[in-house]
Input
Amino acid sequence: MDQREHIARQAAGAVDDVIEAHERGEKVSAVDAAIVRANLKASFDAGIHPFELDQYRRTAPVRD
Output
């Protein structure tokens, strides 16, 4: 696994964790939101397109 893939997997995992917590009815903390923002910013800075993140997500959205 190269660094780019590692960044993408980490960002996708952070997004999934927050989505799953929200779906369970849990409140998303400011810390969790900051972690997601930092991971997404790192992935964007690495040149990873948001659609590329979907391949690593557990809760990937269905696109028509």
Summary: The chain has three helices and no strands. The mean pLDDT is 88. Residues 47 and 60 are 20 Å apart (CA to CA). The two ends are 30 Å apart (CA to CA).
